[in-house]
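Quiz preparation item.
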């Protein structure tokens, strides 16, 4: 096997790295049947086909009276139709029934006039504006929204409140969704400690990456099956990663994939599988690896906390969405006006933390934050977007258009 971890060689462009990830084409994880009440934010695994029409019957769209329109101005009231309590007799010409919104339209009726346009005098209803009445008005016809046999939702649909409401309207108590992908997350290094662990023995750092990466993936719909710290030993790293690959659909590490002497994750992966891509022309996030442990996709993210989260957003997210079964997912990008001069490095995509705002005319403007160090986690939660400075631009003037990535799904 060639040394994909060699410290020499050209960096992959962002598009090349994404092409390698896309070429892996992971299949969505398996499906499961869940109650509709537990399906919010899940991904549909099978087509949702209507076995009922919607509306199920022709009904009134207004409170008022229903009748057969023949140009009348005065109608005799012969009963009422309520939602859940229909009028079961046929309504003759010249007659009308009082009707409520959603009540089945009685036989013989083809028009509804709303209550505000009616004057009731005893057993008679007079139309206030008969010249404005049109045959068929204020009626919801059976099947006009959904017909029996319609494919309502395709596999890959994200089930939000409206989609779940539609499924319930069609009588579904259970629904087939993709299983949540299982993800194992490791941080790497003997200097790391878990929050709450005894920190008195030697200079050490509390591990932030495992928690922030797990939190982000949970928002996207992951089931986190493992978070751990890999030791600075080849044997320990191999054992941890091997165990994770038996339990997870995706394995992620942070730290341990640069060219440092103690970075053993790359050596462990070489024993367990292969890395097809390494080192990307992006800041933050250059020391990043992608490959497989057996058939399980593997990402080695940088150790700096901002770089770890940014690479998660740029590279892990597209593959994770595929595992979820989201076939039409695309990252969100907006156009904005740059408020300050920007500097980058030619040949590398710079993702600068910034804050955007929208003025009264709907124009989005963005300013860059002063602090851009990839170790400064505070700079990420102070930001609400990433400003893209493409690889073919070393600078950007104030007032120029830029592309931004809103951080709503990340922070």
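Solution:
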């Amino acid at each position: 096997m060639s040394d994909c971890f060699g410290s020499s060689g050209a960096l992959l462009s962002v598009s090349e790295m994404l092409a390698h990830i896309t070429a892996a084409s992971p299949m969505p994880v398996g499906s499961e049947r869940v109650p509709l009440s537990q399906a919010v934010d899940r991904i549909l695994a099978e087509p949702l086909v209507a076995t009922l029409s919607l509306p199920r019957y022709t009904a009134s769209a207004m409170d008022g009276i229903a009748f057969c329109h023949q140009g009348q101005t005065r109608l005799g009231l012969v009963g009422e139709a309520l939602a859940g309590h229909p009028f079961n007799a046929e309504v003759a010409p010249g007659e009308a029934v009082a009707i409520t919104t959603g009540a089945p339209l009685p036989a013989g009726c083809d028009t509804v006039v709303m209550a505000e346009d009616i004057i009731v005098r005893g057993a008679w209803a007079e139309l206030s504006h008969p010249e404005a009445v049109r045959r068929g008005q204020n009626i919801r016809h059976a099947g006009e929204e959904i017909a029996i046999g319609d494919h309502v939702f395709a596999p890959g649909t994200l089930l939000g409140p409206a989609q779940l409401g539609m499924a319930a309207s069609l009588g579904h108590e259970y629904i087939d969704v993709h299983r949540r992908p299982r993800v194992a997350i490791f941080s790497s290094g003997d200097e790391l400690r878990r929050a709450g662990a005894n920190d008195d023995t030697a200079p050490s750092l509390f591990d932030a990456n495992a928690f922030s990466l797990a939190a982000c993936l949970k928002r996207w719909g992951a089931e986190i099956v493992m978070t751990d710290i890999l030791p600075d030993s080849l044997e320990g790293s191999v054992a941890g990663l091997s165990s994770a690959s038996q339990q997870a659909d995706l394995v992620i590490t942070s730290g341990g994939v640069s060219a440092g002497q103690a970075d053993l994750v790359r050596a462990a992966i070489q024993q367990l599988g292969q890395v097809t891509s390494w080192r990307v022309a992006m800041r933050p996030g250059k020391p990043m690896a992608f490959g497989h442990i057996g058939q399980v996709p593997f990402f080695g993210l940088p150790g700096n906390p901002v770089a770890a989260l940014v690479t998660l957003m740029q590279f892990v997210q597209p593959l994770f969405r595929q595992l979820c079964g989201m076939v039409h997912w695309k990252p969100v990008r907006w156009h904005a006006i740059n408020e300050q001069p920007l500097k980058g490095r030619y040949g590398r995509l710079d993702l600068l933390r910034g804050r955007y705002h929208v003025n009264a005319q709907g124009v989005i403007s963005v300013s860059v934050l002063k602090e851009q160090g990839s170790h400064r986690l505070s700079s990420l939660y102070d930001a609400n977007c990433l400003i893209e400075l493409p690889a073919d631009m070393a600078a950007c003037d104030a007032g120029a258009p830029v592309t931004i990535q809103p951080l709503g799904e990340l922070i």
